[in-house]
Amino acid sequence: MSARCPRSMKQMMRVVAVLAAELSGTALAQNVENGQRLSERWCAACHAIGPAAPRRAMAAPPFAAIAAKDGVTADMIVSFLNLPHATMPNVPLHGNDAQDIAAFILQAGK
Ligand code: HEC
Questions:
Q1: Domains, the chain
Q2: Separation of 59 CA from ligand 1 center, angstroms?
């Protein structure tokens, strides 16, 4: 009987791991929503943020075009957002906001 204990413990850990993975999947979806909200507020004046959105300021690439660039990663977008940028206003981003916006930009290219 007691020899079975470690095994069922392992099984339970596996269930916990699966649950955790599912939860983080949900969190990811929420992050994209946060990124979209922030983008609508801070970026849409210059960037076309959705596939159907009209192009705005001539020099600002639409998010879908940024997402479609070769080798673009969430990390690159995050570091871009965290650097002061001459052509872009400094946006007050907190916590995971930059990551959330990056996730939103990347899914705009799908
Ligand atoms: C005042 C206009 C303006 C606003 C507001 C603005 N941008 Fe930009 N952005 C630009 C311009 C112009 C460029 C292209 C020129 C450059 O890279 O310097 C650019 C470039 C970028 C790039 C790099 C694109 C590439 O090809 O490497 C990213 C990523 C980006 N913007 C994200 C954002 C995000 C996210 C926001 C909102 C938080 C935002 N921008 C708000 C004008 C703006």
A1: 32-108 (1.10.760)
A2: 9
